[in-house]
Amino acid sequence: MNTTIKPFDNINVRKAIIASSNRNALRLTRGGAVLGDIANGWIPPGIPGFEEAGGLKQDADLDYLANPAGDPAVAKKYMLAAKKEDASLPISADGKWTGGDKVLTIATNADPGKKTAEVFQGQMEQLGFKLNFRIVPQDTLYTKFLSVPKAKVALGPNVGWFKDFADPQSMLDATFNGKNILQQGNVNWPQLNDPAINDAMKQASTVPVGPERNKAWAKINHMIAEQAPAIPWIWDKSAFLASKDVNLIGNGYYDGQDLNYSSLK
């Protein structure tokens, strides 16, 4: 969610959207539980800081992230809070968005991402939002739209991020640090620019590798979740099939079969 575009600049609207999202349904577009755990935060399994952040339960204390199937009552609560904060927002008494303008949404044109985006579109419409839903090739999605702030895309349902190295900074700094917003090739897609988070990242980046560094980034992970800039929904896994006479070994870095270690039985 682009935090620089109305109404997604309102934190309560963003929380309502997360609360209303059925992340189980989103995951089913990829194949279900076999292809990944439901994500609540931003530090994934296998990265230092994951356990310190709460593991698979990270940020589940936040009510808008507590239910992976979505919670209409919590969504309504935050929509009404947004209305109370800003009376000009077109939000009805039952917590639905009633504005007529369509929200620019750029999605990929190939499945399974296209199907994921379509399910997300349906969930946004249930909350009352109307989307200007456009599909483009995945590379164009980044190079022309989501990674170019001047394109002013409000919603991007098909983005993902992978570690550059095994450290929580590689997951959080480029993607949520306001100091890293670029005019071209930007990967802070929500354009989150929270001074407290920026400062915390600057300090955490200098902490030596070890428990204290993990704790510092785990705290930042929670600070990001509290700002509700995006919907975390899946920690990807890959399922491989092999003949019964093959010892198939997967590579955890490039997410494919590792021919260096796979062998015949």
Number of helices: 8
Total strand count, please?
8
Molecular shape: globular
Fraction of residues in β-strands: 5-15%
Distance between the termini: 49 Å
How many independent structural domains?
2
What is the SS-derived class?
A: alpha+beta
List the topology elements.
Elements: H1 11-20, H2 23-28, E1 36-37, H3 72-85, E2 103-108, H4 113-126, E3 131-136, H5 138-146, H6 169-176, H7 195-204, H8 211-227, E4 235-236, E5 246-247, E6 250-251, E7 256-257, E8 263-264
Parallel strand pairs: 2-3
Antiparallel strand pairs: 1-4, 5-8, 6-7
Helix pairs in contact: 1-3, 7-8
Description of the structure:
The chain is of the alpha+beta class. It has two domains: 11-233, Roll (Dipeptide-binding Protein, domain 3), CATH 3.10.105.10; 239-265, no CATH class. It is built from eight helices and eight strands, in the order ααβαβαβααααβββββ. It has helices at 11-20, 23-28, 72-85, 113-126, 138-146, 169-176, 195-204, 211-227; strands at 36-37, 103-108, 131-136, 235-236, 246-247, 250-251, 256-257, 263-264. The strands form four sheets. A two-stranded antiparallel ribbon has the order 1-4. Strands 2-3 form a two-stranded parallel ribbon. α4 links the parallel β2 and β3 (131-136). α1 runs antiparallel to α3 (72-85) and α7 packs antiparallel against α8. It is globular and about 65 Å long. The chain starts with 10 loop residues before the first helix and ends with a strand. The relative contact order is 0.18. The mean pLDDT is 96.
